[in-house]
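for the recovery benchmark. tokens below, seq after
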């Protein structure tokens, strides 16, 4: 289509709106987690959390949604007036609804019925619709079927996450982390710890580390994976497990190996029990004085495991992880004692380990671990 036609005008206007929104948004904060037994005079690891909950749509997925929208527009898939559809358990859909509203596009999220109610409310508040399915494994096919029947575009975060973001730089999360660490005592992190949902964040960070020789020599990427996720077993064995049961830790872990998960850029994986993730979520929320989401708890378990190993080996350095989203979205699940009881989870042993670790620097827990 020739320049100056309405379609090209809309494309230019849409990209302009997204870039203007980005220009209005500050970078997210890098918080230092001060624990008596970690970092500073006590040695071991300085611990940092990049607070992605401060994005306009409230989570790490804001970055992904912006990239997916731009990728879709520039690829000719996202068009004026046509609906955009996503398969999502919540946070990605919230962020995509934000950008769809910015562009004046209809948005539909296909989500499992087990998705936290607060997340579904936020999608609706931003003007999106929710299409719930009983079987979580059906969200992909349902999203594609809706896009086909409505003449819209299935954004497909699970396929496009690793390619929609420029991993070389251009203000991605990896570049931001290393820039914010420059004035810290241990400026180049020893470890960066993240979970994997689509695999896009770990792919971006892992590729960025390898692309920069000064980081590739010193920084390693650890991915933490919850129960009922296919990623850890795939990484450890190379096999592609069959579809597993849905997990409790929304936002990370998948019942199948997603196309955007790149095992080759990950240096180590840890499998974290759900009880540990949830106990750490509540523990960190009390320590920070505000609620965080459960994937942040999973990250914290991985961070403390690695920090304990560094301390035992007499090593010093820094570890960076992510505060992914706010805990208020999980009021009826992770922060509901009745829900915890229905899941049959005992948080007390993990809470005791976390309390002891804060005082001694020793994280007394064995986790499934795999390296490449």
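predicted aa per position
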């Amino acid at each position: 289509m020739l320049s100056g036609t309405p379609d090209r005008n809309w494309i230019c206007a849409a990209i302009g709106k997204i870039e203007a929104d980005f220009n209005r948004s500050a970078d997210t904060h890098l918080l230092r987690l001060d624990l008596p037994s970690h970092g500073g005079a006590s040695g071991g690891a300085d611990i940092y959390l990049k607070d992605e909950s401060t994005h306009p749509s409230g989570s790490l997925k804001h970055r992904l949604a912006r990239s997916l929208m731009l990728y879709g527009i520039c690829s000719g898939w996202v068009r004026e007036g046509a609906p955009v559809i996503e398969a999502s358990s919540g946070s990605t859909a919230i962020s995509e609804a934000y950008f769809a509203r910015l562009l004046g596009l209809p948005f539909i999220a296909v989500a499992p019925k087990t998705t936290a109610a607060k997340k579904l409310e936020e999608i609706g508040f931003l003007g999106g619709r929710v299409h719930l399915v009983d079987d979580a494994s059906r969200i992909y096919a349902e999203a594609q079927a809706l896009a086909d029947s409505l003449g819209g575009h299935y954004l497909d975060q699970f396929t496009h996450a690793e390619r929609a973001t420029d991993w070389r730089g251009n203000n991605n999360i990896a570049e931001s982390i290393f820039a914010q660490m420059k004035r810290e005592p241990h400026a180049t992190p020893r470890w960066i710890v993240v979970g994997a949902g689509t695999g896009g964040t770990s792919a971006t960070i892992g590729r960025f580390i390898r692309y920069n020789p000064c980081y590739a020599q010193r920084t390693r990427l650890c991915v933490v994976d919850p129960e009922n996720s296919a990623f850890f077993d795939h990484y450890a064995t190379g096999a592609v497990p069959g579809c597993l049961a849905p997990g409790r830790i929304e936002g990370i872990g998948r019942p199948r190996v997603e196309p955007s998960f790149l095992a080759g850029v990950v240096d180590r994986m840890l499998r974290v029990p759900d009880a540990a993730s949830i106990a750490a979520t509540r523990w960190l929320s009390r320590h920070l004085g505000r609620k965080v989401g459960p994937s942040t708890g999973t990250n914290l378990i991985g961070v403390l495991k690695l920090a304990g190993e560094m301390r035992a080996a007499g090593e010093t350095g820094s570890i960076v992880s992510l505060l992914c989203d706010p805990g208020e979205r999980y009021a009826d699940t992770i922060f509901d004692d009745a829900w915890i009881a229905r899941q049959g989870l005992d948080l007390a042993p993990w809470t005791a380990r976390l309390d002891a670790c804060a005082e001694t620097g020793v994280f007394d827990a064995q986790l499934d671990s795999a390296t490449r």
